[in-house]
Amino acid sequence: MRASREPPPAATKTRLRLLVLPLLMFLVFSGPSAGAHPVANQQCIATLVKEWMGSLNLSSEDAYPFAVESVSTFVNDCLNASIAGDEFRPLRIIAMSHSTLTMDAVAQSYLEETGFKVVPNYVDVEKILAEILFTERTTPRTYDGWLADSTTLLDVAIQSSLVLPLDEFINNDVNINWPDVSRYVRTVTSAFAGETIAVPVAGKVAYMYYRTDIFQAAGLDAPNTWEDFLIAARQLNGTDFNGDGVGDYAVCWQLLDCLDGYHATGQVMASMTQSQGLETGWLFDPSNLKNFVGSPAMAKTLEILREVEQHAWKGSCEVLNPHMMSGMCAMTVKWDELFKGIQRFGFGLKDKVAVAPLPGSSTVLDRQANMLVPCTEYLCPHAKLEKTYQGDEWVNRAPYFGIGGIASMLNVKQDPVIQKAAFDFIAHVSSPKRSMELVINEFLIGPFRDSHFDTSEDALMLWAAAGYNATAVKSFLQIGLGMIESRNFAMDLRILKTSDYLASLVAGLVNATRGLPITDITVELEKNFESILESSGPKSRTLQLFQDALGFPRAQPTAPPPMTMPPVGNSSSPGAHKLPVILGTTIGGLLVLSAAAGLLFYRCFLKGRVMSRLHVPGPGPNTTLVVTDISDSTVLWETLTSETMSEVMQTHHAVVRRLLGQCYGYEQATEGDSFLVAFHNPDDALEFASELQTQLLDADWPSELLSHPSAAAVHMVPTAAIRKAGGWINPFGLAHVPQLLDSSTCAEDPDSSVHAGPRSPAHIKLHLQDMWEHVSVGRQGSAVETYPTVTCADMLREIQQQHPNLHHSGDSNVQLQPAISGDGRLTQEHAVKLLRSLKSAASMSLRGVLESESYQATSSTSFSDFLRMAWQPALDMPIGKRVASKSKIVSRRGLSSLSLALSANSECAVTIFKGLRVRVGIHSGVTEADLDKCGATGRATFTGLPLELAKAVGDAGAGGMILLTQGTLECWVMNGRATNLLLLCMGEYKLKCETGNQSAYIYQAIKQELVPRLVVFPPLRKAMSFQLPVTEAPVGYAHIAFANMVGVSMLQAWNNELASKALETYAAIATHLLQEAGGYLVELTSSGLCLAAFDQPLSAVVWGLCVIEAMKFADWDEDLLANELCEEVLLQEQRPRPNKRPSVEQTSSTAEQLAPMAMQHSMLFRGPRVKIGVDCGQVLADVSPVTGRMTYRGRVMNRAARISSKAYTGALWCTHDMWKQIQLEHGPAARRIGLTCEWLGSFELKGIQGSVELVQSSLNAVR
User: Are 1083 and 1211 in contact (CB under 8 A)?
Assistant: First the structure.
């Protein structure tokens, strides 16, 4: 909601009057000649925005858009001036997805300090290059800059034409102190072909970390070579480091499926292949591009890492390794964030974990002879004689900077004014003072300036003030400086298609850990490297780009002779004596202008709003179309008098048009009672839509309208359980779920007119599923019915009467579709039939669910059912009347200010409907082809697919809904979305448009004070759903499935195109079957993870088994099936071949007696493999404010992920507790479809206290 247009206080007026003077001085001098149109620069506007924001009693998020519009309108309309760059807008920067917290904090502080807003778009590291290249082809001015690792940015410099050289900016900036940036960072990672292309914001130096107390107890020194590292790992592995009686891993190094794995090979190998200085390279020879992957150095590297992995903790990819942080490992290799984590949160480990340089090697590669030889002073000029576990040896170290640090580039296609504003931002982050604060306080920001490595007493005091041990910091900084200043450091790869080479190295490492012969791996690596090099284009060009990236100087052409400049005039030149007169006249005029402009400025604001935009929205991605439609308008026209409806429509049109003026909307046309309008951006459109919903509640409607069920007032009150819990908290109240699910079953509330027992979502759903029709299309003039209080027995009798086919879960009469093909295969088509029949069976076990005491302890409920348990209609209120004195109506503004914190000692009613119900559809993005102008009137008309989508998405909703497409959401987020609207992802739908069906994600926006509307909103209509909406996601208790496609990184390294197609097929199978199973899609990633949540345990397990089986019969590419990760594997076995399928009652031995045995083949594997882990338990659910999807936290998430990691390929594992739950709730159904389990035993899962009993589930009917 836009900030209220209140007059600024007197102190603010005084401050802003002082600001107007420098603005006007700038405007007078900004024109190139007398009479030129004045232009205000971005910095001047930002200063005014900052000051105006500081004067408002609002958060920066709410104050910013108001301040920008106010200042921009004042400059444009009051002063008749323009803004440099045409507009003052937020800076749009791509940032790495794992830097969200750091980047958000930096952007927020920059906004408060300067008035410039930065809107990061977070992208996974591996997708940043593709995103930039895509925008270059489509909309090259989408982003102002990119923040990523230097390797990715180098690919951007090589493969795109968007990179802006920064030398001129740097030379003209007095605060950036460029010489203070470390030499390597300044001359290599931030440069390309002799030009500076990036500004560093973070260094990335890898250290070896080791436990001093453990090494001392074992009589070991810190490893100086990788051989020492391996010896220490062998000796220490299995030792109990933390005193819990369980042996621990020697090493915490996440070598597989994590970022560490991409650089582990280089960290070890560089010490053997690079001994003559950084100019000689560690993976490629910079003189001829000869690689060393077929050398003995690569073979030894893989042997070392293979054995290290055997002694390493195999956990998830964490920025701060949890096992190392908790004292359960002896050593690791990690970047500088681990040092900060241990110092700030390591508690007892703060003085026990030391840092050391990366180990080196006592043998190096003789490139001529292609063999490893002992290091000598001649062969290793940078080596030192050091003490190793084998004695004194020359040790060659090549500190490896695989990531190369984090830096930012700017877009050469942007307006120079925007380029300067973007550079100022990254220069601010990189400046000595600000970057030092970030290095100390932010985990992901490592040292990259000489001043960051300062170990003086004053510098160490800064670290100590933040909680660090000064002695440890001094050692950390000295070791880091020694590595970064080494003349033999190994640079990040910096070659065309770096990501492909790194992926190939990861695949080689994975194969080594699987036990494949090292020789075969190195041969395959050589083939892959040659293939990547050939696909990179001419070798000479690739070599030149490689040398440019390494900072090798190119031969420079002879410079032309200097130009002769004309002599510069002196003070006696004509016109010089006029300067005092000009200045005096100008300054006097400025004083007059400032007073007049100040008066105009404040009059603009004292009117209560800024001047409207005067032009029609043009084509562009931000242009947003809105279509409104009155629900049940036909019924109202048929049942109410024409006079009443004319008054109603006048009121409706007045509200709409008043808001159009306030939100700068353009009225294109009306179609019946619908408005077709356009806005300059989605923020204005969503403000219009949300304010429309609340202002319709406040409108002065005729009493005849309010007597009609389609427009009657509807009030909601929190149930007794919510009041008992202390009131409604957080936007969607999900913090109440545990209290409601833990409350007593069917507790009767004498003060409530509707039973609101937390254990009765099904009962409440039966009563409320018709509420929408009751509210919208009831009898004219009827009052809202009152539902009597019911008991558990009444409830069960009513359910049985309404659902006569209902049976207890223990009943064997449940009808199930076998869904198995004649040849015993479970294809995707057959899986769909099976899941549909299971969904019906699950719904028919409702009575057993409600009666079973054991089930009540683990009852699942959906988000929508929870809302029904939390809110109930205030049924004792006559339509159109206020609540009696015992209760009170909370106005929408009062409710908003209270953040729905309803008092536990009072009963508050929230008005959710009163008068017309209007649905709103919104879509952003208009091309020139979608905009026509009438030749006679000159009015603009929006047509085509954008308008059809806005109509279709709005038509899918009920009255009172605000629905938007994904295009609107993306623009909304990119422009800095408002925070007063809540977002719900309603899933993917097929919309009916005139030009054909369109698949689209639909989102619902709703104001916080109107959340109780979700209780009565029906499902979306006129649209086919492909995915469950967030309202159907389970909360409180859930069954979580982690499905992982195995070997994705290896497939991508082998053939990225086929791997991408395989991932698409896997995603299509998993999501299609998920829809049929009634599961909720939590996450689907490009690494092959499908994370799903279910309200029924049987659905979760059978879905997973169906996915595994359906993958075998998908249409896979023959080349993909030739890969060993996807090849077909058959199992030959003897089976009885009965003349007919045995009955359920027949045992296997009886079946065998019916027919002779026959040899048959079972398909074990075909295509990419999947393994799945499932668990159940309490979850902490919440709706993401960014995506509108349900997110989950809790122990069950960690357990399911660990089970999936532990499971065999092609298998589904779950906990024994979950299997018992299936037997209790769905035993007959499980037996009829042949669902069985094999007990696997008790397992110790890392990070989980105690042992966990696991079982492997299977469908015996599937062969």
Answer: no
